[in-house]
Amino acid sequence: MANHKSSLKRIRQEEKRRLHNRYYGKTMRNAVRKLRATTDKAAAVSMYPGLVKLLDKLAKTNVIHKNKANNLKSKLALHINKLA
């Protein structure tokens, strides 16, 4: 167990950040899954901008790496273009 006030505070902050990051990481994964499962092109096109915004925001705050965000955006755009 930590002995210093500052280390106790650091532990509290890290736990809070971890839970925040887990929530948004899971939200992002579910949104990607939902878009990939969509077979309707119009629905996928309307979902895409919101997902891009979420990915960019998570990359900016280092929840995910910026290259991962760009790779996901690229793959999802290809998926949408392949839909009939």
From TrEMBL:
It holds the Pfam family Ribosomal_S20p. Transmembrane segments: none annotated. GO terms for cellular component: cytosol; small ribosomal subunit. One of its GO terms (molecular function) is small ribosomal subunit rRNA binding. It comes from the Bacteria. InterPro entries: Ribosomal_bS20, Ribosomal_bS20_sf. Residues 1-10 have a biased composition (Basic residues). Residues 1-20 are annotated as: Disordered. Keywords: Ribonucleoprotein, Ribosomal protein, RNA-binding, rRNA-binding. PANTHER family: 30S RIBOSOMAL PROTEIN S20 (PTHR33398), SMALL RIBOSOMAL SUBUNIT PROTEIN BS20C (PTHR33398:SF1). Binds directly to 16S ribosomal RNA. Belongs to the bacterial ribosomal protein bS20 family. This is Small ribosomal subunit protein bS20. It comes from Caecibacteroides pullorum. The gene is rpsT.
